[in-house]
Specification:
This protein is mostly beta strands. It is 2% helix and 43% strand. Among the domains are: 87 residues, Sandwich (Immunoglobulin-like), CATH 2.60.40.10; 81 residues, Immunoglobulin-like (Sandwich), CATH 2.60.40.
C-alpha cells in the first residue's frame, strides 16, 4: 500500500495496482480531521470477499467510477460519503453506516451524496448511526474532478437495490431540501426493514424530495414523516406495476389550500388532522389504494376518528370526483363517505401503534406529475367546509321499548333536510326518517317505535342544499322492553278544542301530566293522585301539536302521546 499524505486535506488512502482487498486507514486509532479515502476512478476499486470485513475511518469517503464488489462487510465511519454517479456497487454483502464517534471522530449524522447514481447500490445497507443519514450535496475535490470524476450539483439522490435496514433507534434517513433534490430511491425488489416512529424517512416538511419505490405491484409501505418521531406513513397498493413517489407536509407548508377554505382556530381547519401527503406515480392507468396513517396528537378540534375519510385535491372547483357527485361550492377537495379509523399497523415488526389512526381509499389512478393538484391527499371528518348547521343540542333517550331522538337547531341556512340514522352495532346505519327543516332554533323530536331490547346508536345526517351531508355526534341509548304503565292509557278526544281526557291510570299511583310545546317547554302541568282519570283544560293554549308526557311515580321512563289542539 502506498499512502499519500496531503496537508491541505489530511490523509487520503490511494492504492495502485490491482483490486484493493481493503483500502482504509486502519493504522489510525481515531478518525483524523480532514482525512479522506477514495476508491475507483484511476485508483483501485473496493473489493471485499465473502466473510471478510473492511473498516473505513476517514472523515470523508469518496467512491468513484468503476465496479466495487462487496461480498463481505464494509464498515463505514465516515462523516461524509460521496458516490460518483457512474459507480457500480454490487455484491452479496452489507455496507454498515456507523456514527463517526465510534471511530474517535465527532458524533455526527452521516452526510451522504448519492449524486443521483445511475445504477443502484446493489448490496444490503444497514444504517446503525443513531444520528441518522442525511442526503446532502457534497462537492468532489478538484483533483478527482480533473481525474474524470463527475459531480451532480442538483441532486444528492441515493438509489438502493437491496434491503435498507434501519437498524437502531435514531436511524432516520433525512431527505434532501434547500432546493436540491435528495430522493431515497428503491428499485423494484428493494425493501426497507425495521421502520417505526424511532426509525423512519424524514421529509423535513418539504416535497423537494420523496421516498421513491420503483415498478412495484401489490402493497408497499412508505415510512415517512415531517420530523423525527412524527410518523405519518402511507401504504400504496398498486393494481399493477407502477413507480410511486411519496412525501408529506403539514398544512402550513403544503401548496394545497387546506387553510383557506375552512379556517378554524388559529387559521387551521378544525375538521382535519394537519398533514397532507404528496403522492404521484409514473402510470396514470394503474389503480391504487392509498392507506394513510397519522398521529392523533395532530388532530384538529373537529376531527372525529369515528367518522373521517381520505380526500384528494383536484383542479376543478367544486371537486365532484369523490363519493358525492355534487361537490361543495368553492372546495377543490373530494367529499367522501366517512367511517371509523383503525389503529395504525404500518410499522415493523408487525403490530399496532398506540395513538395513531389510519384509513384507506381506492383510486382508479394516481397523478403523474409533482405539480398536479391530484397529487395531494389528506384526511378529514368533513369536506373542508362547515356543517350545514350547528346543533344546539342532540340527544337520544329510552322510552321503554321506544327511543326518542331530540335536537335543537341553530342557523338552518342552506339546510335541505335531516335524516335520522340508526344502528344496532354503531357501524352499519339505516335511515329511519327524513325531516324537513322548520327554521332557525327549532326543536325536533322523532320517536323510534318498538326499536327492541339492547343498545341503539343514532345520529343525524344533515344534508345541505348542494347535496353534501354532514354527521351530528352519535348518541347511544339502551332500551328495555318491559311493558310500561302507559300502554293502557287512552287520551281523547284527539284532536281536541277545549279539553282532553286521560284515562286508564292506576289509582294507586301518583302521575305527572305535562303538555310540551314543540320547543320542549312544558306549557301545562298537572298532578293526578288516587284517580284513573284526569281532564286537561286546553282553552288557554294556542292551536298547535303538543306532546303529552305521562309519568307515573316509580316508572323508569315517561309515556308520550301526541295531542293536537284545534
Amino acid at each position: 500500500m502506498n499512502y499519500d499524505y496531503q496537508k491541505s486535506r489530511g490523509l487520503r488512502c490511494i492504492v495502485t495496482g490491482a483490486l484493493l482487498a481493503c483500502c482504509s486507514i486502519q493504522e489510525a486509532n481515531a478518525q483524523l480531521p480532514g482525512s479522506e479515502s477514495s476508491y475507483g476512478g484511476g485508483v483501485a476499486v473496493k473489493s471485499i470477499g465473502s466473510g471478510g470485513t473492511s473498516a473505513d475511518v476517514s472523515e470523508t469517503l469518496y467512491i468513484g467510477p468503476g465496479t466495487h464488489i462487496i461480498d463481505g462487510t464494509w464498515e463505514i465511519y465516515a462523516r461524509q460519503v460521496v458516490v460518483d454517479p457512474t459507480a457500480q456497487i454490487n455484491g452479496t454483502g452489507t455496507i454498515i453506516l456507523l456514527n463517526p464517534s465510534a471511530a474517535g471522530g465527532a458524533a455526527s449524522t452521516t452526510l451522504f451524496d448519492g449524486n443521483d447514481i445511475s445504477g443502484n447500490i446493489d448490496v444490503n445497507v444497514s444504517l446503525q448511526n443513531v444520528s441518522g443519514l442525511s442526503l446532502t450535496n457534497i462537492a468532489f475535490p478538484a483533483d478527482l474532478l480533473a481525474g474524470g470524476w463527475t459531480n451532480n450539483a442538483t441532486a444528492s439522490t441515493i438509489y438502493l437495490g437491496k434491503d435498507l435496514d434501519l437498524a437502531v433507534d435514531g436511524a432516520d434517513v433525512f431527505l434532501g431540501t434547500a432546493g436540491l433534490t435528495g430522493d431515497l430511491r428503491l428499485d423494484a425488489d428493494a425493501t426497507i426493514s425495521n421502520y417505526r416512529p424511532e426509525r423512519m424517512v424524514v421529509t423535513n416538511n418539504s416535497i423537494q424530495s420523496h421516498l421513491v419505490k420503483e415498478g412495484f405491484s401489490g402493497a408497499f409501505t412508505f415510512p415517512v414523516g415531517i420530523a423525527d418521531g412524527d410518523y405519518t406513513p402511507s401504504q400504496i397498493t398498486n393494481g399493477s406495476a407502477n413507480t410511486v413517489r411519496v412525501s408529506v407536509q403539514d398544512y402550513t407548508a403544503s401548496a394545497s389550500p387546506e387553510q383557506t377554505l375552512d379556517p378554524g382556530p388559529n387559521g387551521v381547519p378544525s375538521d382535519g388532522m394537519n398533514r397532507t401527503w404528496h403522492i404521484y406515480g409514473d402510470n396514470a392507468a394503474v389503480s391504487a389504494t392509498v392507506n394513510l396513517q397519522h398521529n392523533t396528537a395532530t388532530n384538529q378540534s373537529g376531527f372525529d376518528n369515528s367518522n373521517h375519510y381520505v380526500t384528494q385535491w383536484g383542479a376543478a372547483v367544486p371537486n365532484a370526483s369523490g363519493d358525492f357527485t355534487v361537490g361543495f361550492g368553492g372546495s377543490p377537495w373530494q367529499t367522501n363517505t366517512g367511517g371509523a379509523g383503525s389503529t395504525g399497523t404500518l410499522l415493523t415488526p408487525a403490530g399496532t401503534l398506540a395513538g395513531s389512526t389510519m384509513r384507506s381509499r381506492s383510486y382508479s389512478g394516481l397523478a403523474t406529475g409533482a405539480a398536479a393538484e391530484e397529487s395531494y391527499f389528506s384526511k378529514s371528518s368533513d369536506p373542508f367546509h362547515p356543517l350545514p348547521i350547528q346543533l344546539l343540542s342532540f340527544r337520544a333517550r329510552s322510552l321503554d321499548c321506544d327511543a326518542q331522538i331530540e335536537w335543537q337547531s341553530g342557523d338552518e341556512e342552506s339546510l335541505k333536510e335531516y335524516k335520522v340514522m340508526h344502528s344496532k352495532d354503531g357501524i352499519a346505519y339505516q335511515e329511519l326518517s327524513v325531516i324537513a327543516p322548520r327554521g332557525d332554533n327549532s326543536v325536533y323530536r322523532y320517536v323510534h317505535r318498538d326499536a327492541g331490547e339492547g343498545a341503539h346508536y343514532y345520529h343525524l345526517l344533515m344534508v345541505n342544499t348542494d347535496g353534501i351531508g354532514s354527521h351530528s355526534p352519535t348518541e347511544t341509548t339502551r332500551l328495555s322492553c318491559v311493558p310500561s304503565l302507559g300502554a293502557a292509557i287512552n287520551v281523547y278526544p284527539n284532536p281536541a278544542r277545549e279539553q282532553v281526557v286521560i284515562d286508564g291510570m292506576d289509582p294507586a299511583l301518583t302521575y305527572r301530566l305535562g303538555m310540551m310545546a314543540d320547543n320542549g317547554r312544558v306549557v301545562l302541568l298537572q298532578l293526578v293522585q288516587q284517580s284513573s282519570r284526569a281532564v286537561l283544560d286546553l282553552r288557554n293554549l294556542p292551536a298547535a301539536p303538543y306532546l303529552l308526557q305521562v309519568q307515573a311515580e316509580g316508572q323508569k321512563s315517561p309515556h308520550y302521546i301526541k295531542v293536537v289542539k284545534l
